[in-house]
């Protein structure tokens, strides 16, 4: 059964990957970094919360690889951390009733606007309908953006009075969205009067080579899919880099998701939507042309790759710090 499920996982990732953030590999590497920041007791406390997940058996236990079925609890905990980090993306492919309950497309991003010019900003003033609010509702609800979801999830997961099933589901979302919030294309969208009056959907409407669009190009920077073992090996490798380790330790001092999203928005503006992306788009906007296919240079991809690795480490250290807080005795929180 587990081998059949493993084949299914690969097929789902291959089919669904263009829509996912950091794809399978990035989220698992981030979760592996967070795992290494916790004590064994904290790791088990996190798994204990996850065990109340209403789909714990079908989406976690039954997917546990055969090689880990007889493993010690810590080895299994490592795998459950990684599975929690990708679970919100797996929900995209649930049967209709479960998908309606657990899949929330807008929770993955916030389309904070970017513009070609101040003139475009003024032209579109008052006409944008995107949800860029940073004020969270009292309870999790459909239509929230990533900022609102992270704030709601942090409060409810940290509250032991939250129903156990709700707490477990939102913990899985927290695993995932801490990663998403560090992907620049999940914190910005380009708006213009003609090409993108509704926004470029975080780069999904900007066609590129390689990959089919700018969003997918950034999603793929940490790899596409990765095994349990390889994810932990990559986490160890990244954490051994002294510069990245220092960045992670510094990042863990800032646990406000609104700061993380501002960082990502700034990176989107300065790098992701850099000159080689904006120049042909500006020309098309000005000349009534179509959205061009943009060939991303090696220099662009190299710079983006460095940013992706740093953001993965920052994200992993921050997720680890949040989990440390969550598992601390109430008086120490």
From TrEMBL:
A biological process term (GO) from this entry: DNA catabolic process
Record's keyword terms, sorted: Disulfide bond, Endonuclease, Glycoprotein, Hydrolase, Metal-binding, Nuclease, Signal
The keyword Disulfide bond belongs to this UniProt entry's keyword annotation: yes
InterPro entries cross-referenced by the UniProt entry: PLipase_C/P1_nuclease_dom_sf (IPR008947), S1/P1nuclease (IPR003154)
Protein name stated in the entry: S1/P1 Nuclease
Molecular function in Gene Ontology: endonuclease activity; hydrolase activity, acting on ester bonds; metal ion binding; nucleic acid binding
Signal peptide limits: 1-21
Superkingdom of this protein's organism: Bacteria
């Amino acid at each position: 059964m587990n081998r059949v499920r493993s084949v299914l996982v690969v097929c789902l990732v291959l089919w669904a990957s263009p829509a996912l953030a950091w794809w399978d590999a990035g989220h698992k590497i981030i979760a592996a970094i967070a795992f290494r920041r916790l004590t064994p007791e904290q790791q088990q406390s996190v798994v204990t919360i996850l065990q109340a997940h209403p789909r714990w058996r079908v989406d976690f236990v039954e997917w546990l690889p055969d090689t880990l079925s007889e493993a010690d609890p810590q080895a299994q905990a490592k795998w459950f951390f990684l599975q929690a980090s990708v679970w919100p993306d797996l929900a995209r492919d649930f049967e209709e009733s479960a998908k309606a309950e657990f899949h929330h497309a807008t929770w993955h991003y916030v389309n904070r606007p970017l513009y070609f010019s101040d003139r475009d900003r003024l032209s579109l003033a008052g006409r944008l309908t995107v949800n860029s609010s940073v004020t969270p509702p009292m309870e999790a609800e459909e239509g929230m953006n990533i900022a609102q979801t992270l704030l709601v999830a942090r409060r409810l997961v940290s509250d032991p009075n939250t129903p156990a099933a709700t707490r477990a589901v939102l913990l899985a979302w927290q695993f995932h969205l801490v990663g998403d919030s560090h992907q620049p294309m999940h914190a910005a969208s380009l708006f213009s009067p003609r090409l993108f009056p509704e926004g470029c959907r975080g780069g999904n409407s900007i066609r590129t080579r390689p990959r089919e669009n700018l969003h997918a190009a950034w999603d793929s920077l940490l790899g596409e899919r990765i095994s349990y073992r390889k994810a932990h090996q990559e986490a160890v490798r990244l954490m051994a880099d002294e510069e990245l380790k220092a960045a992670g330790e510094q990042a863990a001092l800032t646990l406000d998701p609104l700061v993380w999203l501002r960082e990502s928005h700034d990176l989107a503006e300065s790098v992701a939507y850099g000159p080689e992306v904006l120049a042909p788009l500006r020309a098309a906007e000005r000349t009534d042309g179509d959205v061009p296919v943009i060939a991303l240079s090696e220099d662009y991809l190299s710079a983006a790759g460095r940013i992706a690795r740093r953001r993965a480490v920052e994200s992993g250290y921050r997720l680890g710090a949040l989990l440390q807080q969550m598992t601390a005795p109430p008086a120490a929180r």
